[in-house]
UniProtKB/TrEMBL annotation:
Keywords: Membrane, Transmembrane, Transmembrane helix. It comes from Cytobacillus firmus (Bacillus firmus). The chain crosses the membrane at residues 34-55, 61-78, 99-119, 131-153, 165-183. InterPro entries: Cd-R_transporter (IPR004676). This is Quaternary amine transporter. The gene is qacF.
């Protein structure tokens, strides 16, 4: 949503209204969407490679990967989101990449480390058919989230409300997903059987 609000601010600036303007690059919604898809595709490919590597581990121990989203959720409760808007915008304006969509792709991938920590354990609980449906659904959701972000960027109070409640909702979802992964792989039973010996 930050990038879409930056794009809207550029339009206002070019129309003679007050707004933020990036130094050398014009941010268009098209560049943001293409960059989101490129960065997200990289995240999914890395996660799938990790998932196929994890399949070599006995199923009951794969559930230990559920500790990753639980840890991420707890850290979000403690620290809040570590995504610094100024760092994102300065990355976008840094001139490292010739095109805006490559900058957006880099930002998406760089900020997606926690996504890999969530996707690998979650993907490892799915059958191949479920995995295919999940990946397709994820790609459809990128389009939906881009559309929602684009529309909501114009409403400052909406984005502030989402940020305030997101601070609590996202950690709960991460912790719940971690517990689900451990239950689905019967990891708690495996741990209890070790303790009983």
């Amino acid at each position: 949503m930050l990038l879409f609000s930056q794009a809207k601010a550029q339009v206002k600036t070019s129309e003679g209204l007050k707004g933020n303007q990036t130094e050398n690059k014009h941010i268009s919604p098209k560049d943001i969407i293409i960059g989101q898809y490129l960065g997200f595709t990289l995240l999914v490919v890395v996660s799938l490679l990790g998932t196929f590597g994890v399949m070599l581990i006995p199923e009951k121990w794969v559930g230990l990967l559920g500790l990753i989203p639980i840890y991420l959720g707890i850290m979000l409760f403690i620290k809040g989101e570590d995504e610094d808007e100024n760092a994102i915008l300065s990355s976008l304006n840094s001139g490292k990449y010739n095109s805006v969509f490559l900058s957006v792709a880099f930002i998406t991938f760089a900020n997606g480390g926690d996504n890999i920590g969530i996707y690998v354990p979650f993907f490892s609980t799915l059958t191949m058919n479920q995995l295919a449906v999940t990946v397709i659904t994820f790609f459809i959701m990128v389009a939906i989230w881009c559309f929602i972000g684009y529309r909501l960027a114009a409403f400052k109070h909406v984005s502030e409300t989402l940020e305030n409640y997101g601070r609590w909702i996202i950690p709960i979802v991460f912790i719940g997903l971690g517990i689900y992964i451990m239950v689905e792989n019967e990891t708690f039973s495996a741990l209890l059987s070790l303790i009983n010996y």
